[in-house]
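Budget justification note: compute hours in this period were largely spent on complex prediction jobs such as the one shown. Inputs:
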Amino acid sequence: MSETIRVLIVDDLPETRENVRKLLQFESDVEVIGQAGTGEQAVEMAQEHRPDIILMDINMPGIDGIGASQKISELVPTTQIIIMSVQSDSDYLRRAMLAGARDFLTKPFGGDELVAAVRRVHAKRPVIRSMAASGQTAVRPGVPQSVAAPAEGYMLAVFSPKGGSGCTTLAINLAISLAMNKHRTIMVDGSLQFGDVAVMLNMKPVTSVVDLSARDTEIDADLISSVVQVHRSGLHVLMSPPRPEMADVVTEASLKVLWASLRQIYDYIIVDTTSSLNDIALSILDEADRILLVTQQNLPSLKNVSRFFDLAQSLEYQQKKVWLVVNRVSPKQGISIKDISETLKRPVLMTIPEDDVAVSAAIDQGVPIVTGSNKKRPVGLAIAKLAETIDSELNKEKTDGATNGQAKKTDTSGLFGRLFGKR
Ligand SMILES: Nc1ncnc2c1ncn2[C@@H]1O[C@H](COP(=O)(O)OP(=O)(O)OP(=O)(O)O)[C@@H](O)[C@H]1O
Ligand SMILES: [Mg+2]
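Corresponding output:
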């Protein structure tokens, strides 16, 4: 590593600061540029020296480490903060992340652990931040500018009440197809703890939705463009965090702010949603203009989908909000598409053929079907057609001036509260 990582150590105990300094002194790529004994001093030194990393103690007299982190995140967004604390419970972690911290070290820690955290956080700094620090223009190539969006974009949640139905596969390929058709499109991994989007796109989760959700307030286009990553196809991607516990920071309220901001910038927001209906997943379905409900030609899938339609009715979703897509369609399967449609009393928007070879090659190689050598196979063509159908349906609606199918409720009392609250 050629770049030197400039570090500020903040702790009220001089011996702790000295110990931390000693742990870093032989690292050629790390330079300790100063030490602060209070939160106030940390804020001042951060503004003056603009370090790359601050190692921040939590318990200090005066402004504590959380308060100082909050101030520094606002005043010097190029600086990344790592909290050092004897407390390692999730509440502390959550508070630290909300204050803008990027990582957390539990005291006592060893040199290897410390150096690894410093390098990891530095490597994961949002691109815009390093650009700003070096005085370059803070815009990444290919990131759409906020002024251009004429109207609010559509949000589509790809969901199945049964795991393994193909949501991630369809969401990714749909999003790429839309992006390749010149629609400003972002794929958001709504499976916050164990998302697969980064792996399937062969991208590193360098930045994630946590980098935006940790700030409940303003999320402007510059901040979004610093966190969003661009896939080779031109698709913008907002990944799930690299560690499951970091997902704790994301709340329904922070997501609401995020969706509103993304709608101003993108034509399409495609969200891969978990099968388990926790409050976050439910808030995504509520917020979405359309839900692509993915099912397969087997009884357990259809039973779950039928139950979901009941739930959608109880939640007062308009019928047109849910689009049914049957995945892995094969003539070998017993239940025909006609039977599925008749049994569920819903039209099937699109069928996607089963193609084990193309789909597993895409996953193994990290090259999505619609961009790879198999894009002309029926599965690739069907997903491309799905993208075109969705676009033309929504455009039709826009020109008809119809209202969207979104549930307009703001009730956030959770699934059970909402269902039982009605009775
Ligand atoms: N059309 C298809 N043809 C063949 N295999 C498919 C097809 N669609 C998906 N699969 C396979 O099904 C499996 C599950 O797909 P995927 O991970 O996209 O589903 P998911 O609904 O996101 O699952 P999870 O609930 O784990 O998030 C994968 O192994 C994938 O290769
Ligand atoms: Mg998935």
